[in-house]
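lol ok so funny story. i was supposed to be doing the assay writeup but got distracted and ended up predicting the structure for this chain instead. priorities right. anyway since i did it might as well share w the group, maybe its usefull for someone
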Amino acid sequence: MARTLVVKATAGADAPERCAQAFTVAATAAASGLDVSLWLTGESSWFALPGRAEEFELPHSAPLPELLQTILSTGRVTLCTQCAARRNITEADVLPGVRIAGAAVFVEEVTADGVQALVY
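and the output, tada:
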């Protein structure tokens, strides 16, 4: 059975350490061969947009654009439907490979067999 890790990032530039932890754990898991699904919610929603990850800075942290690219190239990145709507973000706005989906899809992912979920 494939092992899957679902990481829900709730923080962005408002809580940079928590944000970086979510992206670092997701990218590390993806690089190690796990099936990874990163959910962008709350303030992390902005990182679904082109150029926003490049604006993020946290000393002694891996660059967010590199972490995001690792996840996009090997796993899934999903932007919360409601979070996108509250920020006027549409499918046309997001980075290639980012999907917009809601709570039903999240629940389906986290309740599947072999899934571990983390919230940051």
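The domain at 4-119 is CATH 3.40.1260.10 (Hypothetical Protein Ychn; Chain: A,). Residues 46 and 52 are 6 Å apart (CA to CA).
back to the writeup now i swear
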